[in-house]
Amino acid sequence: MSGPNPVQRTALQLYRDCLRLVHHVAPGHSAKAIALRTTVRMQFEKNKDLTDPIAIENAKAGAVRGLANYMVFQSGAKDAHVSQAMTNFHTESVKQARNAKVYVKEKHDKQE
Fold first, then answer.
1. DSSP state of 79
2. Which end of the chain is more exposed for a tag (fewer CB within 10 A), N or C?
3. Residue-level pLDDT at 1
4. For the residues 15-38, what does the mean pLDDT come to?
5. Helix H or strand E segment including 7
6. Is 40:23 a contact under the CB 8 Å cutoff?
7. Alpha-carbon dihedral sign for residues 72, 39, 61, 18
8. Is 1 helix (H, G, I), strand (E, B) or coil?
9. pLDDT tens-digit map of 53-102
10. CA geometry: angle at 111 spanning 105 and 112, to 5°?
11. Cβ–Cβ under 8 Å, residues 50 and 59
């Protein structure tokens, strides 16, 4: 029998998963560990009063995405080929975002 879908996990289970991940990547009381734990705590406290089921599921999905993204990033950083591909993707994404920003600014300036 498998466990629940990650998004179907309770908020408490996700919170504990996040803290376990922090302990795994930054054990002890280093500045990085304290910053990560504080970030996790702040995000969960920010959403503790949500009552809308859709908003709750969106917040939980965001937590799962954050955990998954961090794990992919960490594992990718250990593999030279994947690390280079991630760097290339990031560089290209930044270029595209800057080009889009320039295009929107130029379009806005022409309309004035």
1. S
2. N
3. 44
4. 85
5. none
6. no
7. positive
8. coil
9. 898 888 888 887 877 777 777 777 778 887 788 788 888 888 888 887 76
10. 95
11. yes
